[in-house]
Amino acid sequence: MLLQARRSFRSLLPLMGLLLCLAGAAGATTEVHEEAAADDAHALPAIMPVTVVKSDSTADHTKFKELKHAFDSGPEVTKACLSCHTEAGKHVMATKHWTWEFKNPKTGQTLGKKHLVNTFCTNARGNEGMCAQCHVGYGWKDESFDFSKEENIDCLVCHDRTGTYYKTPNSAGNKACAVMFEGKKAIDWQHVAQNVGLPGRENCGACHFYGGGGDGVKHGDLDSSLRLPKKALDVHMDADGLNFACTECHKSDKHDIAGSRYDMVAKDTAGIGKPGEQRHAASCESCHGNGPHDMDLTGLKLNDHVAKVACQTCHIPSFARGGVATKTSWDWRTAGKTKNGEGYKEHGYIQGNGEDRAVYKSIKGSFQWGENLTPHYAWFNGVMDYTTIDTKFDPAKGPVEVNRLVGEPGAADARIWPFKRMQTVQPYDKGNNTLVYMHLWGEDDNSYWGNYDFGRAIRTGMEKNNLPYSGEYGFVETYSYWPITHMVAPKHDAVRCVECHSKDGRLEGIGGVYLPGRDSGNLLDMLGISLVMLTFLGVLGHAFIRVCCNKAKRGHA
Amino acid sequence: MTMRTVMVYKRFERIWHWCQMALIMTLLVSGFAVRGIHHLVDFRSAVSVHTLAALCLMVLWLFATFWLFTTGDWRHYLPKREGLLQVARYYAWGIFRGEEHPYNKLFWRKHNPLQALAYMLLKVVLFPAIWITGIPYLLYNVWREQAPGWLEPVVWIHVGAAYAILAFVIVHVYLLTTGHSFVAHVKPMVTGYDEVDLTPAEEAYLQESRIVPMK
Questions:
Q1: DSSP code, position A211
Q2: Who's near A482: CB < 8 A, 6+ residues apart?
Q3: Contacts of residue B151 in chain A, CB cutoff 8 Å?
Q4: What are A331's strand-pairing partners?
Q5: In the prediction, which pLDDT does A331 show?
Q6: Which is it for the CA torsion A367, A372, A376, A379, positive or negative?
Q7: Do the chains contact at B171 and A516, CB–CB below 8 Å?
Q8: Taking CB atoms and an 8 Å limit, are A498 and B171 in contact across chains?
Q9: H or E element in which residue A415 lies
Q10: pLDDT digits (tens, 9 = 90+) for A197-223
Q11: What is the longest distance spanned by two Cα atoms in chain A?
């Protein structure tokens, strides 16, 4: 069957190309609507079946009797999946996609969406009714969610290949918000269940492109432009070229997917590994090795950079390049303004693909957007030190780094990495000097997205989680750092040598390394130039006296 | 003693000199571009050119060293105190008074004492300083894990020596303008022939043996 499918696939290639174009065009037209919605209220876009994923599957799910009946809900489909894939449930339950929790062995910190405070909507914790749309499960809306029930796993969000599957918030939320999710076509569970496959970019992208509350908001190197990117935007995902699915690099082992931001490999010295070894690493080196440039005069020197400079630093010259903007700054202080008692939004940023992005929303505050941004560079050894909900800080000491990058300048385990640096002004507990959980989403009177009252939203958010709250909140400036690793440009667009090897270049201020072209003009050059100048003046003086004497002599004669 | 026009700079020596001149100029320009002193050449090209020219120069030096020792010409560079003060005095004083240069070229001593001393210092101090630091600099990635702190001294010596070589070039070129004329000074390094004070024995020997062309 598979062979047949492949044969017919090949013969249909030209037609499929045409269909893909049409699908792409259709996707583009509907995207406007969806993304406007996503931008407004975190609604996930319906998945577009626009990418072809390489598969060597030996199963055709349309033929499975387990799937040849009607289903009324997601969990029912999951039960059917697990009746054959008996171990998949246990595997998924062990992953961060399920637990939203990660204990970093290097720092001992407990991380994950279940715990962290970020610099966007600040906390998923307590707002699961909304945020857990991106949880790989069904129905997490509060503490009562059963993490041990396998049928609560949502297989389809990753494996649907029809593009008709979608998720909505797990709880209704305030009336004003809930209305955004109405009017969607009901899911045909049987159709979806029979058409599962390996995840395409649109599957992963349904959540990862929309982190932070909208298209491209959070990462800057992940947004909907990567569904069907051109080569200039991403050489690996190039829809007309390599057309990599995310999992081509983000290899999985028992559903655990490599390449988490919580525990990064900043310097992969294992390279392509031993002969025949399949590495479960999402690093560039795991495919390209540790000496990826041609062995010519320039290539050898470029290979030397591998020790201190991450591949991404040169090969991603700028991010948010696909026509979708990323949020660069967010000010919560201005949130809560109303017109006639109603929340509103102000438009004011037209991004590269023509879409309008809001620069103010009553529910969130003021934003700035950016595109084609030059990364922020820093030494990084893969470890981030988080300011968690219980970390005390001194607000007088300048911006709080929510995830401080660890890595000594010049250290053997660190490299210079590119980041998006997000700047936010967000609420904090003025009495305890900690960040806060806000109760944003809910049907009650205390949720901020309804009453626009920070005091009550914070008090509720903290009380719900048994956290101390002084009762007084203020606003503190925060930074968060997002490693830039997607949107790898074609090699001719890589950062040119001189952009770092010059004064006021990209790496101005980066210590721990001697950078020819940047680090001149010190005592050595002062002495050297003085020597040369004095020599030159000496020679000139000598010549001058010679000429004068000659003239004098001729005068005498 | 008779002044005769003799081949003092043999073909290899002349090729060596002019190749070395071209390579050193290339290295100075590209090297200071890499260092960031000027921006006449873009960084990427400057690095490649610098590396390539350095490799060529080191090969040339290998040949030159072999040549110097096999021909015995290395003796020309041995410093001698005799006449040194007179030559120094000449450049500091006599030259302004229109005195004649106190030194006449000898067949086995084609450089004046000050010149010989300067060239020897160039060969045993500045040039080694450049290549002894230049090679590790080029191979930095091989040893950086073992000796991370050594890059800085390597850079300082390499760049410092480069400035000193540039100063040498300035004086070297300037001194060509002293004496009869610039052309008269450069010509021997082009044709190989220069006026040399020969003893009657030397003259007779060179005449007879014809090991060195003589006009």
A1: T
A2: A218, A219, A220, A221, A261, A419, A420, A421, A422
A3: 514
A4: A366, A425
A5: 98
A6: positive
A7: no
A8: no
A9: strand A415-429
A10: 999 999 999 999 999 999 999 999 999
A11: 123
Contacting residues for B45 by C-beta, under 8 A, at least 6 apart: B30
Give the separation between CA A500 and CA A503, rounded to whole angstroms: 8
Task: Give whole-number Cα distances, B124 to A56, A229, B77, B118, B131, in Å.
Answer: 68, 60, 10, 10, 11
CA separation for the pair A257, A155 (Å, rounded): 15
Question: What letter represents residue A516's amino acid?
Answer: P
In terms of phi and psi (left: phi > 0; alpha: psi -120 to 50; beta: otherwise), the region of A92 is alpha
- Do A320 and A216 form a contact (C-beta atoms < 8 A)? yes
C-alpha to C-alpha distance for A546 and A533, rounded to whole angstroms? 20
C-alpha angle A394-A395-A400 in degrees, rounded to nearest 5:
90
Of B35, B145, B174, the CB nearest to A520: B35
Of A498, A524, A536, the CB nearest to B44: A498
Is A529's Cβ below 8 Å from some Cβ in B? yes
Share of chain A above pLDDT 90, in %: 80
Q: Alpha-carbon distance A124 to A138, whole Å?
A: 16
Q: How many Å apart are CA A394 and CA A408, to the nearest integer?
A: 23
* Residue A461 and residue A436 in contact, taking contact as beta carbons nearer than 8 Å: yes
Is the CB of A524 less than 8 angstroms away from the CB of B51?
A: no
For residue B50, the number of C-alpha atoms closer than 13 Å in the C-beta half-sphere is 25
Using CA atoms of A175, A177, A180, A184 in order, give the dihedral in degrees to the nearest 10: -60
Give A483-492 pLDDT, tens digit per residue: 999 999 999 9
Contacts of A200 (CB under 8 A, 6+ apart): A49, A50, A51, A52, A53, A161, A245
Residue A468: count other Cβ atoms within 10 Å of its Cβ: 12
Q: Please answer yes or no on whether A525 and B159 come within 8 Å at the CB atom.
A: yes
- Give the pair of three-digit tokens for residue A289: 């090795």
Give the residue extent of every domain in chain A: 2-260, 326-500, 523-557
User: What are the tokens at A143?
Assistant: 């503490």
Token code pair at residue A160: 């649907």
Length of chain B: 215
**Lowest model confidence (mean pLDDT) among A158-167, B17-26, B95-104:** B95-104
What are the pLDDT digits (tens) for A270-321?
999 998 888 888 999 999 999 999 999 899 999 999 999 999 999 999 999 9
Those residues with Cβ within 8 angstroms of residue A87's Cβ, 6 or more apart along the chain or in another chain = A254
For A78, the token pair is: 């999951």
The set of residues, in sequence order, having a beta carbon less than 8 Å from that of A310 and lying 6+ positions away, is A266, A267, A380, A415, A416, A417, A418
- Domain chopping of chain B, boundaries: 2-6+70-209
Q: How far apart are CA A451 and CA A495, in angstroms?
A: 48
Distance CA A320, CA A370 (A): 7
* Higher pLDDT among residues A20 and A510, named by residue: A510
Q: Does A550 touch chain B (CB under 8 A)?
A: yes
Of B34, B155, B174, the CB nearest to A517: B34
All residues at 6 or more sequence positions from B100 whose CB lies less than 8 Å from its CB, including other chains: none
Q: Which residue has the tokens 């009746």?
A: A83
Distance CA A400, CA B89 (A): 70
- Whole-Å CA distances, B75 to A472, B18, B70, B107, B193: 89, 21, 11, 12, 19
Q: How many CA atoms lie within 13 A of A405 on its CB side?
A: 26
Q: What is the mean pLDDT of residues A347-369?
A: 96
| Angle separating helix axes B151-175 and B11-35, nearest 10 degrees | 130
In this prediction, residue A63 carries a pLDDT of 94
The pair of structure tokens assigned to A392 is 């005390």
